[in-house]
Specification:
About 30% of the residues lie in helices and about 30% in strands. It has helices at about 15-20, 35-45, 85-95, 120-135, 155-160, 175-180, 200-205, and strands at about 5-10, 50-55, 60-70, 105-110, 140-145, 185-195, 215, 225-230, 235-245. The two termini are about 25 Å apart.
């Protein structure tokens, strides 16, 4: 198995070509439609560089990247942040002196397309958990975005998260990896992100013509997109699955 080196993303600069290759199969464009996340993301990126990691392979090529933020959490599933934006908001509050963080939230994880199946994903999640331990956070959680939920956009996230293989492991590959390295599914984030924008923007993002109001199945969408032509508004609500690590 390939061995990976872990370093802070801020440790050295990378070329645009390198970063574009790393993110080549990243998140769909419509993720940028979460306006609540947009309120916090720039400040979060600036404030928590010590939790932003890059992995490189034996040839010093970019293999994976991931990041997270600290929050205060009681340990009760019912008191987890209500959305990804809420995670970021709470982390900023902690940064500004509202409480002492005791929980690390893994917010993002991405593997270079050419290194999927190489062990980079497991190494990345383990490195993020190690970072949490190094900063003395007692708890680690992640709002996991299942990688194959988009193939079943009409299936409720509760049913999807409960879907297992014959060996009892989660059917979804990304959930399965988290569980295989010690994570445990603890809850659902039914409204992890809410993306809204004009109908024309949704047509641009999806490549679809949207002629009338109604629900639409969109490429890479985990749930239907709801269109209101009269209001010139498309709303897409994406679910995630809460996983707790060591």
């Amino acid at each position: 198995m390939t061995k990976f080196r872990v370093e802070l993303t801020s440790a050295r600069s990378r070329t645009d070509v390198q970063m574009e290759a790393l993110f080549a199969e990243g998140f769909p464009e419509f993720i940028s439609g979460d306006k609540e996340v947009g309120k916090y993301i720039a400040r979060v990126r600036e404030s928590f560089r010590e939790y932003d990691l890059i992995l490189t392979d034996e040839d010093d090529q970019l293999a994976a990247t991931g990041w997270g933020v600290p929050i205060v959490w009681s340990g009760q599933v019912s008191e987890l942040p209500s959305s990804f934006a809420d995670v970021l908001r709470q982390s900023i509050e902690v940064h500004d002196g509202s409480g002492v963080a005791n929980t690390f939230v893994i917010c993002g994880a991405l593997v270079h397309p050419s290194l999927k199946g190489s062990g980079a994903a497991a190494s990345l999640i383990s490195a993020l958990c190690d970072t949490a331990a190094a900063h003395h956070f007692a708890k680690v959680v992640a709002p996991v975005r299942p990688t194959r939920k988009h193939l079943y956009p009409l299936l409720d996230i509760e049913d999807y998260a409960a879907w297992v293989r014959d060996d009892g492991m989660p059917w979804d590959p990304w959930l399965r990896l988290h569980v295989r390295i010690g994570g445990r599914v603890i809850g659902l984030a039914r409204e992890a992100q809410t993306m809204t924008d004009s109908v024309s923007r949704w047509e641009e993002w999806t490549g679809l013509e949207i002629p009338v109001s109604g629900d639409y199945i969109i490429p890479k969408g985990m749930a239907p997109l709801r269109i209101d032509k009269a209001a010139d508004l498309g709303t897409y609500v994406e679910p995630n699955v809460w996983v707790r690590h060591r």
